[in-house]
Amino acid sequence: MKTDFASRLTKLGTETAFAVSQDAAEFAAEGNKVYPFHLGDINIPTPGNIMEAANRALQDGKTGYNPSVGIPQLRDALAEIIGFERGISLTRENVVVQPGGKPVISKFIQALMNPGDGVLYPNPGYPIYESQIKFHGGIPLPYGYLPKPNGFSIDRDRVEEMIDSNTRLLVYNNYQNPMGGESDQDEMDWIADLALRHDLWVLSDEAYFNVQYSGKPKSIVSLPGMQERTVILYTFSKTYAMTGWRLGAAIGSADLMKIFAKLSVNDESCTNHFIQYGGVEALTGNQDGSQNILAELKKRRDLLSTKLNEIDGISLFTPNSTFYLFPDITELYHQIGAQSYEDFRCRVLRETGVSFCTREHFGTPLPNEDRKYIRFAYSGITIPEIEESMNKLLDYFKTSNSFSPA
Asked: Side-chain half-sphere of 123: how many Cα atoms within 13 Å?
């Protein structure tokens, strides 16, 4: 039997945070304590009322096929809640339920991008953007960010330089993974103007839209002229601690959602039936559980940020959204004589048990980058573990001046 696989597979990337998970698991298997800051999973239980609703549906026999677009109750709830939060009018015809948020990325690209079309996407950013662009024959156009006192801003000059007549799509992830970056109104207005001037379709990845510790989130879809050219990626994973449930939705124009529905029929037939009733409860039921999740995440953020800022050589701002911190570790990187991001990451893991992702896990660094960053996810680690791990990290870097390159 021939073992030659399809050549297009060479263009398919992966979510490299899972490779870090494997390293951490192997280190733990050797009998070591690991402090898991690497994966954006949540170790807080899904709220009980959501689990009860899904269980009721399971017991009621909601175990068969259902419409590829999703059950009407969930589509209606999504249209109402998302429309209200973003100040736009939606109906169920604007909603196609998905098995998680991630499928929205590939379906957006399949529906709107032809081979050879250019796609702007954030870098550092979620690695599946680039993977899907390349896999489907697009031209990846990564745009970067510039550090500022209270976070990061999009490198507007780079974006403008890359756009040409072949540029068709723009991926925009406000409340951003991995940086926790957040657009101010001026930046969001500029993105909207850019899309209108160049007739771009926009994927608004809003996975962390409701993970806000103060104030109210904003969506680009609310700006004039943007609703008809924007697809919202919605997921239950973060807000309701439902990462393993695999439940999300695409929200966009009714005509485009018909294409998404056809792609869903081809890809997975339909989203799991009984868990959709959990989604209805998540949106329309008691919200104490989601508020408790947010409160716990805020405690972790505040503690981790305080502890990291106690380490000489770390520069860090505390974002108001997501559950990530993205500290600048340039001084520490050089202090221990690191030869690469991987050298830095692996040495810290071996010496302290602290496991994290680096900037390289979120796209190839751009040519103008001269600072070093790592990402801490605090969604899967407890308060006592944060305390313990940061003490180990502080002790390690206090004595690291004498270390030589590995």
From this structure: 23
Buried b (16+ CB within 10 A) or exposed e, 198-223: eebbbbbbbbbbbbbbeeebbbbbeb
CB 169 within 8 A of CB 120: yes
Digit-coded pLDDT (tens) for 119-173:
999 999 999 999 999 999 999 999 999 998 888 999 999 999 999 999 999 999 9
Element (H, E) at 367: none
**Residue-level pLDDT at 1:** 67
Domains defined for the chain, CATH in brackets:
7-45+289-400 (3.90.1150.10), 48-284 (3.40.640.10)
For residue 405, name the pLDDT band (cuts at 50, 70, 90). very low
Q: d(Cα 137, Cα 168) in Å, to the nearest integer? A: 13
DSSP string of 121-160, one letter each residue: EESSS-HHHHHHHHHTT-EEEEE-EEEETTEEEE-HHHHH
Question: 40, 177 in Cβ contact below 8 A?
Answer: yes
pLDDT at residue number 13: 80
pLDDT score, position 109: 97
Cα dihedral 46, 50, 52, 54 sign: negative
The 8-class DSSP code of residue 239 comes to T
When pLDDT is averaged across residues 363-380 and rounded to a whole number, the result is: 93
Instruction: State the Cα–Cα distance between residues 70 and 264, nearest whole angstrom.
Output: 10
